[in-house]
Target: Secretion protein
Amino acid sequence: MKTNLIFFAVVLFGILNIKAQCNPTVTSPRLGLVYQDKILFCNTENEVLSTQTYSNYQWYKQQWTWQTPNTNPWVAIPGATSQQLTINGYDDQLYYFKVAVTEGDCTAESPAIMADGYVYGLPSMISTFTPGTYEEIGPGEFNICTGASVKFDNTFPAVYGIHTWFKCFPGNIPPSANDPCIISGVTGDSYTATESGEYGFYACTEYCPDQCEFLGTNSFVKLNFGEWDFCKSLGTGEIKTKGNNLKVYPNPTVQFLYIGKESDKIYKEVSIIDMTGRLILKKNDHKYNEPIDVSSLAPGNYMIISKSSDGKNEFKNKFIKK
Model:
């Protein structure tokens, strides 16, 4: 009787042990290097996803969306029935992946991972004007008072490295060194314009140095400097950009975001912009200790722009929505 009980215990332990090992996970060389459940890779490269050894495999993918929760269906990848799956940055960017496995009578799915693209998202440009010195005369075109200036910033400077700034539409992309539209000697992520022109940039990403992006002529900004009727004397009304020196916390955040400090009391305007330069949220007269609910935002990087109560100071900070 004792022998039978021992035999039964060994068999039961073996069954439980098999089930306990039916717990697949996805691994890859760059998974988790920046974010735990994301792969950040360049659009000219491949990445190999792997899981543990099982009897059968089926890989699935789901397209990313801004919606929360994601309502896109999980789709079985035809022919993806081996232990490894090769994906690439051109076709598989902004997709979730998971694998379903079987081992004996055990069937299980891995947690999903994401092939992310916002590490080198399409460029966008922020334009900062001085109040009282400009007039918008059409989409992307402004009359500017002589003596004033307009500051242009790459919305996500951490993504891009060396920039090529233009004062007119370039003749070729990638730009040629002798293109007269190139602003000589300017390679940073911002430029301050003081003369008429059509401004934009071309830049290469830091994470993927061989991957470069053009702002696109539709996103260029045209400035016409002159002595316009609306022009006022320049002086104390100029907005001063303070950079990333405003406290933003917690960062990363899941639901609530706080900005600023008690001495500021109120911010005249707070805007959140996504990786494409699209305005996601805007608040007026925001108190420093009021939470900003960002729970509905999709996970990723965002820019938050805050203006002081008198409108003279502007703060630009980046935060991560988990």
Summary: The longest helix spans residues 2-21.
